[in-house]
Batch of 2 targets.
Target 1
Amino acid sequence: MEIQIPTPLRTYTGKQASVQVEGATVSDALASLTAAYPDLKKHLFTDEGKIRSFVNLYLNDDDVRYLPAKEATAVSAKDSLTIIPSIAGGRTLGTN
Amino acid sequence: MLRLGKTDYEAIRAHGEETYPHECCGVLLGHATDDGNSVSEIARAGNTRTDSAHNRYNISPQELVKIQRQAREKQLDIVGFYHSHPDHPARWSPTDFAEAHWMGCSYVITSVEKGKAALTNSFLLTGSGEEDKKFEDEAVEVG
């Protein structure tokens, strides 16, 4: 299946915007990705092996965290997984 | 240096005026070059922080995926983002910094004072990751 790589992480995939990986599930696909591009791992996962809070994963048009099986969701060769870091901000900390 | 056309520059500022007193937000699409990001077009986005839109913005990942997909069809990349600061300086805040994760991208901020766009500044997010990221002032070339 194809994994879409966001701009800031292409440094670690030889500037490729998408890569093809093997895997039966979302987790397997990510494992294949970080096996092929080990420098990506710390940018995607915490030391405990969980996806970092600001990293969003979309399997086609669905947010993986809201799928019933989450990262254990089965994938096929026709699927596309998009890695998309969060974008947010605002003028001050706290509210006023 | 961030390069963008006059139409896009004015559209970014106009967006901030339209949403005032709330923060506007959007995406910069184009290419990274040797001397900075070059914007080919912008994409407006919705601010999902309806609970605190006067001082917070958030672009839904779902919308970002859609914007990125459409950009890819035009062979454009996401090279940055813009948002506005209603009645607040056009400088990044601690919140902007904490929520910045797109290294190599330009973060454009427009101050909108009493409904009128004032300054528009850009900041390049440098570093290799969360541990060493920082914002650097970058010049904006409007052509």
Target 2
Amino acid sequence: MNFFHRSPHTNEMDEELRSHMQLRADDLERSGLDRAQAERQARIEFGGRERYKEECYEAMGSHFFETLMQDIRFALRVLRKSPGFTFAAIVTLALAIGANAVVFGILDSLLLRPLNVPQWDSLWGTMYAQNSVWQSYPNYIDLRDRNHSFEDLAAFNMVFVGLDTGKDPSVFNGYATSGNFFDVLRIQPYLGKFFHASDEHGRNSAPYVVLSYGYWHSRFHEDRSVIGKVVGLNKHPFTIIGVAPPSFQGTLMFISPDFYMPIVNEEQVNTEGMLSARGNDRAVFEAMGHLKPGVTPAQAVADVNAVGAYLERTYPKEVARGTTSLAHEGLTSFGPDLKGFLAGLMVLAGLILLAACANLGSLFAAHAGDRSREVALRLALGSSRRRILRQLLTEAMLISLAGGGAGLWASVVLLSRINTWRPFPGTAVQIPVSPDARLYVVALLLALLSGFLFGIVPVRQVLRANPYEVVKAGSSRRLGRRMTLRDVLLVIQIAICAVLVTSSLVAVRGLVRSLHGNYGIDPKNTMLANINLAMAGYSIDQVSAMQKSMIDALESIPGVEHAGLVNGYPPLVYTAGSRENVFKAETSDLRNSNAVANPYRYEISPGYFAAAGTSVLAGRTFDWHDDKDAPPVALVNRDFAGKMFGSVDHAVGSFYKLVDGRRVQVVGVVEDGKYQNITQDQQPAMFLPFMQSPASASFLIVRSHRDPEQLAAAMRTKLHQLDSGLPVDPKTWNELLAVVQFPSRVATMSLGVMGMMGAMLSVTGIFGMAAYAVSKRLRELGIRVALGAQRTQVLQAVLGRTVKLLAVGSGIGLLLGILATKVLAYIVYQATPRDPLVLSGVVLAMALLGLVATWIPAQRALSVDPMMLLREE
Amino acid sequence: MTDQAQLLPGTLDLLILKAVSLGPLHGYGVLLRIGQITNSALMIEQGALYPALFRLVRQGLLKASWGVSDNNRRAKFYELTAAGRKRFREETEGWNRLATAMTTALAAQAEEI
């Protein structure tokens, strides 16, 4: 063992004892023995050298570190002697601690680490789409000026802009921020300067842009002369005035912007008039500010809601009802869900570690049992029990540290992969996780804790060991009823694994159900292209004509069956969705409380339903005559029809009222669908003709059985024939669905991995138990076979107990799992354990696991050759 | 060998102090000296000497230094420190008192009571 240098003490002691024996040998030689004999005699007379050395150490005042080194050297020797055991133990722990480290690393990065801005703890903001009362720009201005809680209030909106820096123009994402944004966040520029509230002088008065450090680095290669340069944002000239510091990547965890521009200029790159409309809930994404000293978050929430109530009273038509809560910036409305999910995952990971400890505990107990002879010998030779326990714990700690180290290493690798992973290619979505000191400390603590947990399992065994009996009887007896502790451990372990298997099956079922649910669209064989005509410099009067020519152009592509268009975003894309109050046709007071429903609103072209694959249940769809001059008409979904008119049949031909006061006639009813995300309950939706409310940002939808790549190329060619300056990047609907399916997929994947790990642990646990039982009873089995036992009898004798424990453990685990799915329902869509498929799946899985795990031991038991065994002993 | 007496607990330390008080000795020398001064009446397993030596060094009663033995072997030599000399005197007195008391007690005859 050259792992540790021996200390000078040890060397000196060795030398002294050797010198003693040589002096003695010299004397013996003088008395007539030859040298070899004399040395042998001297050694015998000296007595138990190792024991005396150990006593010397104690006499010297038990140097903790020295003893530790001794123990470690010894432990390494022991572990090296049983590499299979060591390997299994380290791998088990590496998996369990790795799982915990990964989950903790994510939790740490996303929940425990605040946004990287000064005094983050007093910075509070609204959450996107959270029942907001005031996410329009005029409402933000009112809130900013009327609240008494914030020192100052900043706002931002996300914008996707065609940015022309002289090279090829492409789409980048940025923040349109209030002028006070950087001052509210207390951030200083890295280069140049920021814009301020004093730069805002009404609409389109501040054509400045601040670059993010990352964008400046990748696009301009840190060229300092970009300050003062004029770039085109959707063809409008903006001056680069500064670069943000590298530590600041916006106020959202998952998306870091490429640039920042003043919100007063947002209409140049987004919808005309969006800042002045009080009802436009897409003008402000979130607002935030530092609370005044002494103001509690609860007081601030009350204050904000008071302003909300004032706005609702003052502008009953435009301001939708709702209450707002505040949160630290970063996670927006994902916060609560994410917290629940990660906490749930952490619990499962903890369970895995517990199962691993139970697993290793019983392995260790078996290992210690096998070594009872050695332990007894050491006790008989004068070693203290404390010393032996210390030795066993050292072994456990070595294993747990090795396993913990391996697990930590793997988790760091995985975390950095997640950090650089872009779940949706072509978007700025990221998952910023990085290991920090806290992760290392937690992993170390977990390793020590689990080492201690499974290290103390054999303690009782050692304390009770009676050296004389063990030495007399040998170690191969001692079996039968005496393994109760290990039985309990195995049951615990199997129960935990069954819980994990149950959860993962429930999650997988939930995912399958939500993936194959009816979305009200048919995403197969579609191709979508996001076209913002404002980016190509079209005015709002020109867009309808251009959009119609685009649809015509796409329809002329060979193989295209249908083509259509929807303003803004289609359903289930980027969790976008805008809703609006609707009223009975006879209602004249269009205040919030009189609204019948708050449906999603889509503005669509005539071919949309055919292209989207939405079936029409009654009435007609739009045609090209439903334009600006035609009477207002609408299609609604079944849910809307039921809520407003009582039934589908009553709906067609009836009228209702929009929030702007227009009376609309329903001309058709379409099937229900999902709109904002796949897990939401059924919601009402209405579809209006796109030519009656023109918008420059839209999605073109094409349905075709052609190869997606060829189709995309054809679409690009066709659209560039109309306008070569249009950025066109077609994607399939399924690709875009990945975004809304992402949470479910991630949840299912992580639960699936947990379930797999649980299954693996139970396999190793059962295998260990069964293999041990077989190996310890080989002689007995040999006798049984010799006496004429049948195969089934042999199997029953040796594995009956394991199978019984497996059944008991699975039963308990299944019950617990069913209880646990109540918790799972928070994170997994449609998690229900009362699903016969899940129940039978768990039973089947556990039975299979048991079969796999006992297969090899059973084979070994069956292949017993009595003659050989009896001869051996 | 049967005429050798078992060592009473605690007496080994005193014997070592006595042996070393007569002049610096290495470990093996201590054993020889004890054998010599007790006429080999006491049985000490050779290895058992060392934990006692280390203990005495740690208590500051002995000090050790490496030197060369009579027959030219490197060995560690022990000698008394001032504290060791003091302890040796105290323990000797204590032992003498105990021995006298024990001897008197064991010699007592029935008629003397």
